[in-house]
Design brief:
The complex is a heterodimer. Chain A is of the alpha+beta class. Chain A has helices at residues 2-20, 30-43, 45-48, 71-80, 96-106, 121-129, 154-157, 160-168, 240-251; strands at residues 139-140, 143-144, 180-184, 190-198, 202-206, 212-216, 222-226. Chain B is globular. The chains are: A alpha+beta, B mainly beta. The interface between A and B is large, with 33 and 39 residues.
Chain lengths: 259, 530
Amino acid sequence: MRWRVLTLFLSLAVVAAGQELERSPFHGDETSIGVGKASFRLRCSACHGIHAEGGKGPPLNRGEFAAGNRDVDIYRVIALGVPGTEMPAYGTRNTEENIWRIVAFLRTFEAVGDERVDGDAERGEAIFWGTGGCGGCHKVGRRGGSYGPDLTRIGRSRSVQHLREALLDPGKDLPAGYFVVKVVTRDGRTISGIGSGIDDFSAQLRDASGKLHSFLREDVESIEREFTSVMPSYGESLSDQQQRDLLVYMQALRGEESR
Amino acid sequence: MNRPVWLACILLACAAAALGQVDSEALANSQQDDESWLMYGRNYSAWRYSPLDQIDTENVGQITPAWIYQTGESGKFQTTPLVRDGVMYVTGPSNHAWALDLKTGRELWHYSEPVPDDLPLCCGKPNRGFAILGNRLFKVNMQATLVALDATTGDVVWEVESADYRKGYSNTVAPLVVNGMVVIGIAGAEFGTRDFLDAYDAETGERRWRFWTVPGPGEPGNETWGGDSWKRGGASTWITGSYDPELNLIYWGTGNPGPDLDGAPRPGDNLYSDSMLALDADTGELRWYFQFTPHDVHDWDSVADPVLIDVEIDGQPRKALVHANRNGHFYALDRTSGEFLFARAYTDVNWADGMTSAGRPILIPGRTPTDEGTLTCPGMGGGHNWHATSYSPQTGLYYFNSGDGCQIYHGATQDFVEGEFYLGSAMENVTGEPREGSILAVDPGTGDQRWRFALVSPPTSGMLSTGGGLLFAGTQEGYFIALDAASGKPLWRLQTGGPVRAPAITYRFEGRQYVATAAGSAIIAFALPR
């Protein structure tokens, strides 16, 4: 217990010490940038993309950061994470030097700014809650359904490319933890929905009406896990312009909606 | 006689009796001792098989927890507990250890040592168990130290540093006691360390020998490393080996060369990375080696259990060493000479098209990690990684787990910086193709699969087989299960509430058979109802 407290204290010290510097001590240093890039690939690329192009995390290769554009701002996000999102805190796992080397790598990208999409956020919002039917499955703030993931902060936590893909090819890169469970009962009924758990002996799922089910493998004909999406693809049903409007609307969702 | 003297005599007598128990002979005969569990692999051949048969295929459905000990420590709980004389000795994550009363599961003592904050780590802070000799327990700590504890009190008797943790060394291995020496490996190959296998005097802690797993200049094998790359060559030794008392040879597997995924800085075969070593137990001299994956660029450590079995292969009785490698193949070697006997793929393999007669993999081109990524099977963790395996002389089958599926390997060149990851990049899962797993039963004489129990997630636990015809294992989702060792049919399970990351053990106490395992952050001991 004593040591937990001390470790916490030390890790805060790492963060505090790191914050005293405005700029990475390794800024522009080739070796450190190489180490930073390798560390980034190892620890961060699963969410931010192998070339920092973004995906299940925001792009970090655009030379601009929502958290602020000084080295120390980037250091702070990496060390402390973003509580309540998938962005973990690395201050307790990585050394101060390692984080500064990652910062030095992230500063090698020239500032190009956010990808610009030609659309209208207000029209997008109307589609979201209206013809698109998105709000039936997704929440923004307190409003909307909960069959799909909460999108309150989606503009900040995903790349535009990922959002476009989610609309056109929703099964391609599912959010972490999402899968479909399909159960065939002994009397031939099929029950499927979003899996909340699956293991070698059982599965739990939520069907489209929101009802929870739990099955033991030994009690049913079959249980299958599928990595497909339950969200319809909007490539056909929405025009190009409507898709762009939705993208601009989602890009603007940065967690500021009242919860 | 006054009372204090009389009491002291009794205590001394007890201590002496206990001390006499775990001598070298007791360790050599551990297979016959069904009241105890005296070493990591249960016997020197690393079988993890106990003849106990009170719990069997008929009644296993009735076993229930006799006690549960909550350690309160989070982190990967991967230990193999030791059992002797009514006490269980357990090591936990982050340099913790406990002695537990077998009758009640109550704690007798608790040992702990802080983990330095600046210790560079790849994979958490687990520990895989104690070794015992006399009344002393031996364990490694994360910061690459080895400690001897008094088994009665948990007090430190001696402590030595085997390497400087600031350079990237760390330790998680369960020691192996051989001929009065404590043999330990080392970890750190993700940080460009040069690794070794050490033997320490159990009495004094003095180092008796060291074998560098990457040969220095002038030593045979050094020429398999271009330039001075041997200095950062890795070849760690983080899983316990085995021992053949007749041949007086210690067998120990080695890990990946450094940097893991970038072969460019280290042209050559990179001996003795990804190899099986046979060392003279008294001197640490190399008798033979066999390299599974020459010039590895996929991080396929070859540290998994070297299991010693006398078995017929191609009609000939063999003193074999069998080993399930992370590169996707099951191997049999002659343990007297290191001769390659055969290898069989046990999971999807797309990097090699069989082996030469000497056991060198025949490479399929285009599987070297690139910037854009190359899809290779098995993935980085294997195949069979490090989890303890089991051989049952009753069924004649060898049991191990396998992670099944492929990964995309991305390379990148990087300079070496002390204390920083020296991996040369990363792996990525294939979208929409989850990594799964299985528990396999293999005929050790042929590599034929007898049965396969599918797991929805990559495996996390080790194996235990028993004279009751059972195989015990656990799952990532927290199930502790008993399978029929002959058929693989599940016979019993309990949802323990935390991932099972350790192999189970079994022992007899006051006439009852117990099966115990770490699960989540607890130790659970199971038995039939009274």
